[in-house]
Write a structure and sequence with these properties.
Elements lengths: L1 H25 L6 E10 L2 E7 L1 H6 L5 E5 L7 E4 L2 E3 L4 E7 L3 H8 L5 E2 L1 E6 L10 E7 L2 H14 L3 E8 L8 H7 L2 E6 L6 E2 L3 H9 L6 E5 L2 H11 L6 E4 L15 E6 L2 E6 H4 L2 E3 L5 H8 L3 H11 L1 H5 L1
Parallel strand pairs: 9-10, 9-13, 10-11, 11-12, 13-14
Antiparallel strand pairs: 1-2, 1-7, 2-6, 3-4, 3-8, 5-6, 14-17, 15-16
Bound molecules: flavin-adenine dinucleotide, FE2/S2 (inorganic) cluster and magnesium ion (MG).
């Protein structure tokens, strides 16, 4: 008799769990997040709007979310690239660089992702800044764009310098034009707009006597390091947006730690709760770059397992 009862209970839970999994995959469970729209911005960068009203209501420029594409997925941070409070949606813009972004890009409009947690991080400090220079590189421009919009909306004079490796990788030019008093577009190979990297026009402007209350730079670490070095002789404050590996996003795991040098002392900070914005003059960029390369072999292997292009090669 006892075995019969145990068997019935076991069957009940088996059917129940299967049903819950089905509901999750059908997206009828309230915890799933619907992809309201999906738009490629260039061959490797995609924009999505995700239905997440609670995040949309609270997010401010400079903050980010952590998502999981599906139940078995890893957690990845992406910046809030815009919100529509009326529709309860959050815009994300991501570059397909590895397994998880590849998996996310396989999802289509009307489908669902498992987790979408946020807003996380400290919003970008915008108060009191009257004249700002935004320097974005590659997909970093997606992170820089809402920041430029926030400065524009508060009446600041905005100069934007955006740089890409080539014309095919250009994103958000119209959006930057709409919120900038002056926009300079650079390509590394000269295939569009001005030839060269973003530090060239920045240096020219500073040498010509242009003075900004603040320079904000967002992009590859090496670019942010050189923007900071370019600004240093002119004593302009520089804010950099750090993008180390993040896991929990709440200051618990230590994965996102970085070193600042403050008054000659080395101080550990966590990008997820203390940042992602930091004073560029204090960041130990070389250490951050070496930490960023730590999981390269693992990431490459995971990408190869996800991407069909590798399988057919
Ligand atoms: P992988 O092959 O696993 O990794 C490729 C590279 O991405 C790694 O070398 C590493 O540099 C980075 N990366 C991998 N896992 C993580 C992780 N858990 N946390 C942080 N970086 C990781 N990218 C965008 O395209 N758009 C954004 O708006 C954006 N905002 C970000 C905001 C913050 C605060 C941070 C920290 C990162 C942001 N990134 C953004 C980077 C994005 O999180 C990574 O590109 C993504 O995690 C790559 O995952 P993957 O599995 O596809 O690639
Ligand atoms: Fe874990 Fe920042 S992501 S401490
Ligand atoms: Mg990954």
């Amino acid at each position: 008799m006892i075995f019969l009862v145990a068997g019935v209970v076991k069957t009940y839970f088996f059917v129940y769990n299967k049903r819950v999994r089905q509901i999750n995959h059908n997206g009828r469970n309230g915890c799933m997040y619907r992809i309201v729209s999906k738009k490629p911005l260039n061959p490797t960068v995609t924009q999505m709007e995700i239905e997440a009203p609670l995040v949309a209501n609270k997010a401010l420029p400079g903050q980010f979310i952590i998502l999981r594409v599906d139940e078995d997925g890893e957690r990845i941070p992406l910046t809030v690239a815009g919100v529509d409070k009326t529709r309860g949606t959050v815009k994300i813009i991501f570059q397909i660089v590895g397994a998880t972004t590849e998996r996310l890009n396989h999802k289509n409009e009307g489908e669902y992702i498992s987790d979408f947690v946020g807003p996380l991080g400290v919003p970008t400090h915008t108060e009191g800044v009257k004249k700002v220079c935004i320097v974005g590189g590659g997909v970093g421009c997606a992170i820089a764009m809402p920041v430029a919009q926030a400065f524009h909306e508060q009446g600041a004079e905005v100069t934007s310098i955006i740089g890409f490796r080539n014309k095919d990788l250009l994103i958000l030019e119209d959006e930057f034009r709409a919120c900038s008093d002056k926009l300079i577009v650079m390509t590394d190979d000269g295939s569009y707009a001005r030839h060269g990297n973003v530090t060239v026009p920045l240096k020219e402007m500073l040498e010509a006597g242009e003075r900004f209350d603040l320079i904000i730079t967002i992009g590859p670490l090496i670019m942010m390091k050189f923007v900071t070095l370019t600004a240093k002789p002119f004593n302009v404050p520089v804010t950099v947006s750090m993008n180390p590996i993040m896991v929990d996003g709440t200051g618990m795991c230590g994965g996102c730690r970085l070193t600042l040098v403050q008054d000659g002392k080395r101080v550990t900070k966590f990008a997820c709760v203390d940042g992602p914005d930091f004073n560029g003059y204090e960041v130990d960029f070389d250490e951050a770059m070496s930490r960023g390369r730590m999981y390269f072999d693992y990431e490459r292997h995971a990408h190869e397992e996800t991407c069909n292009l590798f399988k057919h090669a």
